[in-house]
């Protein structure tokens, strides 16, 4: 499982759990607000996955087509997508399917 598949699965699971809780008749107003907010956050994170994926595909495509270019430029473009995906995965670090290679390491000056 790659990080994108991992994230998509987690976001869909979170959204499904929120919908399940929202469907219950015994939910308080504050719990309803929280669960509706969680659903909107899941939708926003799914949009981010699309944005990051598009940027990654674009950089890879240009890198393959531009044989004369300095590949460091494209490596920098790809790095931010990798870091963004790792940041989105960080809250799920305790999940059994989480992989240590996705863990963000603090950069020191």
Description:
With 109 residues, the chain is mainly alpha-helical. The chain has one domain (3-95). The chain has helices at 3-22, 29-65, 71-89.
Compact description:
This protein is mainly alpha-helical and 109 residues long.
List keywords for this structure.
70% helix; mainly alpha; 3 helices; 109 residues
Give me the secondary-structure topology.
Elements: H1 3-22, H2 29-65, H3 71-89
Number of domains: 1
Taking pLDDT < 50 over at least 5 consecutive residues as the criterion, the unreliable ranges are none
Mean model confidence by pLDDT = 90
In percent, how helical is the residue content?
55-70%
